[in-house]
Amino acid sequence: MSHEAQKAIARQSLLLRSLPDQHVDTLLRQAIWRQYDRGETIFLQEEEAKAVHVVLAGWVKLFRISPTGAEAVVSVFTRGESFGEAVALRNVPYPVSAEAVSACEVMHIPSPVLLSLMKEDPEIGVSILAATFTHLHALVAQLEQLKAQTGAQRVAEFLLNLCDRDSGRCEVELPYDKMLIAGRLGMKPESLSRAFSRLKPVGVKINRNHADIADMDDLRNYAESDTSER
């Protein structure tokens, strides 16, 4: 991807799109632009947070390692999404690790640059708060899914969010491996396989890393149905 294309994506990210052009230009000039291979570490849990990160292409996962060595996927980010705002500005260690789950490109904005601009213009702080609130809202929605939906319903929601249309037939590519999908949805890999099987009656066929959805409305109705009625 060209540097100009990278800048265009960064300008449209939630973190930057509401800022005045002069601030965006300052941030882009002082940003660090990196490419990562699949499986490459971006930062590790307990490292000191020194930057805010914006994904320009590909996928990045945030995860924690429990005392027993188990991996818990916290979130997955893709093009135009940012992470690390809250900890970077507080100069505290990362509570999670970040890893590229596909080849990806990431823009890193050093914390001192953001802090300096925030002192000049409080609007920068408002933008960071908006991005942080979006992350919080996503985590609350994720928790609600874990409590209120079956595994198959969570998979249905996941597939619907990958679609580039609102109705009709849709074929989507699974963006990362099934083990990570399972972790992202709070499931074991074998539970994910069973969930895919349960979606066959509502028109979902899985072929390797592709999902063919016969009718999005049928799948949406399944995802939103009351589990007590089935």
Automatic annotation (TrEMBL):
Residues 15-124 form the Cyclic nucleotide-binding domain. One of its GO terms (molecular function) is DNA-binding transcription factor activity. Residues 149-217 form the HTH crp-type domain. It holds the Pfam family cNMP_binding. Keywords: DNA-binding, Transcription, Transcription regulation. GO terms for cellular component: cytosol. It comes from the Bacteria. PANTHER family: CRP FAMILY TRANSCRIPTIONAL REGULATORY PROTEIN (PTHR24567), HTH-TYPE TRANSCRIPTIONAL REGULATOR ARCR (PTHR24567:SF74). This is Cyclic nucleotide-binding domain-containing protein. It comes from Ruegeria atlantica.
